[in-house]
Amino acid sequence: ALPTAQAFLALGLNQVVHRLPICRLPDWIRESPIPAWETWDAVELRKREFERALDALCHLQPTGTKVEGGFALQDELTRAWRADTREPPGYYYDFDTTKVRYYGTTLPYAEKGHASDRSIRTVVGFGLVTSRVHHHPVQCRPIVGSRNDMISVDETVARMEAAGLRGVTLVMDRGMVSAANLKVVRKAGYHQVGMVRDGTEGWWEALGRWT
Hints:
Blueprint: H1 4-17, H2 25-31, H3 34-38, H4 47-57, E1 58-60, E2 66-68, H5 69-84, E3 92-101, E4 111-114, E5 120-131, E6 137-143, H6 153-162, E7 169-172, H7 179-187, E8 191-194, H8 203-208
Parallel strand pairs: 3-7, 7-8
Antiparallel strand pairs: 1-2, 3-5, 4-5, 5-6
Helix pairs in contact: 1-4
């Protein structure tokens, strides 16, 4: 069986190069120079090797408890790049969400929601936080397709707090700016930069009181 770390490497390279479906990965790996570079035995490579790697990141236990190993991996990778980067700690972080169409049948995050073209489709949401200067990934997580962007902020802030990020300024678009979200951001000791909706009542007055 292909070790989990090697399967992760193959999945990552696939996302960078081709974004092939998992069922086509074994043939792609065998035809590539990767087995020679990494001394892999790819003759008996099957789709299940990559599915096991994904299950290691996120799966349900028999009790129904969700294991989110991917979050622990993200936190460790973030600590690693922060240890070597010249980017100041506690700098600006970009936070955004997007929805992509889902064509399968079994993903629990897939629900009816607004796709990127504003149509109603079966979609899966993703929330991404990156550092402002070098765009290092800080957090990426799935979001239920029916979930509004506005209510994704509290979970994101909680995850960043749990990862030990301090003194952060979050840059958000207008779809996530609200009084309730600003309160969540400030309670965490963070700051927020964001657009406001055109014509919102009282926004000119608020800008006039900027300090």
